[in-house]
Amino acid sequence: MKKAGIRIEDLHLSFGDTTVLAGIDMEIYPGEFFAFLGPSGSGKSTLLRAIAGFGPRPKGRILIDGKDIADLPPWKRNVGMVFQSYALWPHMTVRQNVAFGLEERRMPRAQIGPKVEAALDLVGLLHLAERMPSQLSGGQQQRVALARTVAIEPQVLLLDEPLSNLDAALRVQMRRELLSLQRKLGLTTIFVTHDQEEANTTSDRMAVLDGGVIQQIGTPQELYDTPVNGFVAGFLGTANILAGHMNEGCFVTKGGNRLAVDNYRGTASRIVLRPQSVSLADEERGSIAGKVTHREFLGSQIRYLVGTEDGEIIVDTLHHAGQSGHAVGADVMLMIDSRSASLLD
Ligand SMILES: Nc1ncnc2c1ncn2[C@@H]1O[C@H](COP(=O)(O)OP(=O)(O)OP(=O)(O)O)[C@@H](O)[C@H]1O
């Protein structure tokens, strides 16, 4: 099947007085794995459901493969959706669950069998076709839900927090499986999640939402390296955001520390420093003095919170076996690599 692109134009939706989508514009390219990332209540699910055709009709346009589908009922949109809850029929076998959508579409029986087998084979569950959903693990149930959705050969796959009922280890495994399935099928896919690691590791590009507004769209790395505002900086990974102003090619922090930055001509009032751009240094080389207020042993790294004149700064250092690092209360000097830092107006 031809890969379909999605275009969303000026989409607005309110529930009573509450604005949930406030003018969404975006384009999702054919064959792309795209994530909607944002905190709880940011409007991700509402946006996904609007694409699927569930919920009230939003204002604006939704185009799939160039056709406006905003007035079509869900079953005429050629999209397949997988829910967080899986929504399998408990009284049907795995095979019957996967066949159900095809039967509903009145596909001839002779074609249904092979399509069901192919879909189950794709998710590695053909050998469990006669089981009931209650006889499957959470991860297996999720695969059945996926098989059922891809069996109908949708143009677009919509995934609403599909991994959130799984334990941490299985989530990591399933997100890899999901990506490899998506790559195999080349299916334009939208994945809703509030988990930045999940979005980072799966998506080609993502949109970060807050308050029903898209804050930024880009690849995971673009969003991490060059966030456009403090919300995106803080939502994608850990960020130290220091206030100050620009002066002669340096960012001067409130605490009076001068941080060199490359090729920046704007009037920034904040600088975003990732924890790995800050290191602990000896007296001569360090530029900011502080005191360790908190330390967290993370295995491969030790994370220090250091109180300074510029507020608390988070520093990640590599942990080497046998070395104890700094204790809470220790006086330390921080060295900052600010050249690639991003600056916010
Ligand atoms: N049917 C509804 N009636 C009234 N308000 C609703 C309805 N559905 C969603 N909302 C509100 O819309 C806002 C966005 O909800 P939505 O489910 O899209 O957020 P989300 O980003 O997907 O959050 P979560 O991760 O918690 O699912 C929330 O404030 C929610 O309370």
Outline of the structure:
The chain has 345 residues and is α+β, with helices and mostly antiparallel strands. It contains 8 helices and 20 strands.
What report would you give on this structure?
The protein is α+β, with helices and mostly antiparallel strands and 345 residues long. The protein has two domains: 6-231, Rossmann fold; 238-344, Beta Barrel (OB fold (Dihydrolipoamide Acetyltransferase, E2P)). Helix content is 25%, strand content 34%. The chain has helices spanning 44-52, 94-104, 109-122, 138-151, 168-185, 196-202, 220-225, 230-235; strands at residues 6-15, 18-28, 33-37, 59-64, 67-68, 79-82, 156-160, 188-193, 205-210, 213-218, 240-247, 250-253, 258-260, 270-273, 278-281, 288-297, 301-308, 311-318, 331-336, 342-344. The chain has a six-stranded mixed β-sheet, with helices on both faces. The chain has a five-stranded antiparallel β-sheet with strand order 13-12-11-14-20. Strand 12 (250-253) and strand 13 form a beta hairpin. Helix 2 crosses helix 3 (109-122) and helix 2 runs parallel beside helix 4 (138-151). The longest helix is centred in the middle third of the chain and has 18 residues, at 168-185. The protein is elongated, with a radius of gyration of 24 Å. The mean pLDDT is 91. Adenosine-5'-triphosphate binds next to strand 2 and helix 1.
